[in-house]
């Protein structure tokens, strides 16, 4: 059955940042210490601002360790539908934002020499069902039109029979917690901070904002709400966020597993590998459910059955579950709220490694007055 724990949390150090020191003032307060919050704080500090990350629990312990951490410009089969629903220009912008985000993460790893098992590899979106190949063909045409590095192939290196796949070259995988811990360790100093065990209760707006927490308040010129579901939500964005739960197993197999990220698009199941102290771990995910199901074991059992039908499973070591939210139009929500100087990043639709990094780039540019091509596309007030 496996231990109820995230592989990412179990294979990286714990953190011990202090609680909030009351009465401080920073240029930007970042609420939430997941991939969106920590990456945004990193880019803002790099640009010369003082920042404070304020996290209710310990950082990188919520959805950003519930993930499978595939880094890809192709969030499953979305582009054909995006072209139909939003038009070619918007779809092209989203594809370009995703490609930039993959490269930004690669740059961050290289420039900061982060030891996080970052590894380039292809992503395959495949089907085992001949009748579904037509959907891959449609998505292929769309992705090609948008300039993505895609091909349609029958050569899928999985250890079971498949019908066809889209192959996206030069995508990536990593250990999300090792990556984010490295960024977080570099934040404190020169007027910047990481505060843990400090729950944000509300934000009092004004030219200078006051963030009220259970450990007192902190003042800042800008506020970035990166708490997954926004804890401060002046525009009622929560009405446009549709949360779902998904399930993950970390297991060992008897045979070698191919180098690649693999996504069966219907019903969604994914595979990737990760180096572990006892050899290569295979991380299998799938079985979406409502967030508040009464018996999560039903979904874990289905996922394990699926994994055993497809792989020569030797042992299941870990199992974990987490949730993410999909927006009304499938695009993330990133940018300034109706309140001047208060920004939000949410609605990553199970692709928060790239969308969370895009959020950091867009919000850092907005705060620093730098033109950014994607501001309108992700505008939180678009609904
Ligand atoms: C099973 C699964 C598989 C996935 N696989 C992938 C994948 O392969 N590739 C990919 O790109 N994405 C994937 N995702 C999506 C991705 O993991 C998420 O989109 C992303 O991690 C969300 O990051 P975040 O920073 O918004 O949220 P979080 O990591 O949850 O960070 C938000 C933080 O805010 C804190 N917080 C909440 N309330 C308060 C408060 N009141 N005060 C202070 N702090 C607060 C929380 O404690 C938390 O630490 C997957 C998601 C799931 C569930």
Q: What would you note in describing this structure?
A:
The chain is an alpha/beta fold and 383 residues long. The protein has ten helices and 18 strands. The strands form two sheets. Strands 1, 4, 5, 6, 7, 12, 13, 14, 15 and 16 form a ten-stranded mixed sheet that branches. Strands 2, 3, 8, 9, 10, 11, 17 and 18 form an eight-stranded mixed sheet that branches. Strand 9 and strand 10 (209-213) form a beta hairpin. Helix 4 (79-86) crosses helix 5 (88-111). The longest helix is centred in the N-terminal third of the chain and has 24 residues, at 88-111. The chain is globular, with a radius of gyration of 20 Å. The relative contact order is 0.21. The model has no long low-confidence stretch (mean pLDDT 97). The chain binds flavin-adenine dinucleotide.
Give the arrangement of secondary structure elements.
Layout lengths: L2 E2 L2 H4 L14 E7 L3 H12 L4 E4 L8 H4 L3 E2 L7 H8 L1 H24 L7 E9 L5 H13 L4 E4 L10 E10 L2 H10 L7 E3 L4 E5 L4 E5 L2 E10 L15 E13 L7 E5 L2 E9 L2 E11 L6 H15 L2 E15 L5 E4 L5 E5 L5 H16 L7 H4 L5
Parallel strand pairs: 1-16, 2-3, 2-11, 3-8, 5-13, 11-18
Antiparallel strand pairs: 4-7, 5-7, 6-7, 9-10, 10-11, 12-15, 12-16, 13-14, 14-15, 17-18
Bound molecules: flavin-adenine dinucleotide (FAD).
């Amino acid at each position: 059955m496996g231990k109820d724990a995230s592989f990412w949390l179990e294979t990286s150090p714990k953190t011990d940042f202090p609680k909030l020191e009351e009465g401080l003032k920073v240029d930007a307060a970042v609420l939430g210490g997941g991939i969106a919050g920590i990456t945004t704080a990193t880019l803002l500090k790099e640009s010369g601002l003082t920042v404070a990350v304020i996290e209710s629990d310990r950082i990188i312990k919520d959805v950003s360790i519930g993930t499978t951490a595939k880094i890809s410009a192709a969030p499953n089969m979305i582009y054909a539908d995006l072209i139909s629903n939003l038009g070619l220009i918007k779809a092209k912008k989203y594809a370009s934002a995703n490609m930039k985000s993959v490269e930004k993460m690669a740059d961050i790893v290289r420039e900061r020499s982060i030891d996080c098992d970052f590894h380039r590899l292809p992503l395959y979106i495949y089907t085992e069902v001949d009748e579904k190949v037509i959907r891959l063909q449609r998505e292929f045409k769309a992705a090609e039109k948008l300039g993505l590095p895609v091909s349609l192939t029958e050569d899928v290196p999985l250890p079971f029979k498949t019908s066809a796949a889209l192959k996206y070259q030069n995508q990536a995988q990593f250990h999300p917690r090792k990556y984010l811990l490295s960024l977080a360790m570099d934040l404190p100093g020169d007027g910047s901070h990481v505060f843990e065990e400090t729950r944000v209760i509300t934000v009092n707006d004004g030219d200078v904002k006051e963030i009220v927490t259970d450990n007192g308040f902190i003042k800042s010129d800008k506020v970035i709400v990166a708490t997954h579901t926004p804890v401060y939500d002046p525009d009622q964005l929560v009405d446009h966020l549709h949360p779902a739960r998904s399930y993950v197993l970390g297991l060992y197999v008897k045979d070698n597993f191919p180098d690649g990220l693999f996504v069966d698009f219907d019903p969604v199941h994914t595979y990737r590998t990760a180096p572990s102290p006892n050899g290569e771990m295979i991380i299998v995910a799938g079985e979406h459910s409502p967030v508040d199901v009464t018996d999560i074991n039903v979904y874990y059992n289905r996922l394990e059955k699926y994994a055993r039908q497809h792989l020569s499973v030797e042992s299941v070591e870990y199992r974990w579950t987490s949730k993410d939210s999909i927006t009304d139009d499938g695009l993330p929500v990133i940018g300034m709220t109706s309140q001047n100087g208060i920004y939000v990043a949410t609605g990553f639709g199970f692709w928060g490694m790239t969308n969370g990094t895009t959020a950091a780039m867009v919000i850092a540019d907005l705060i620093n007055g730098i033109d950014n091509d994607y501001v309108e596309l992700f505008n939180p007030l678009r609904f």
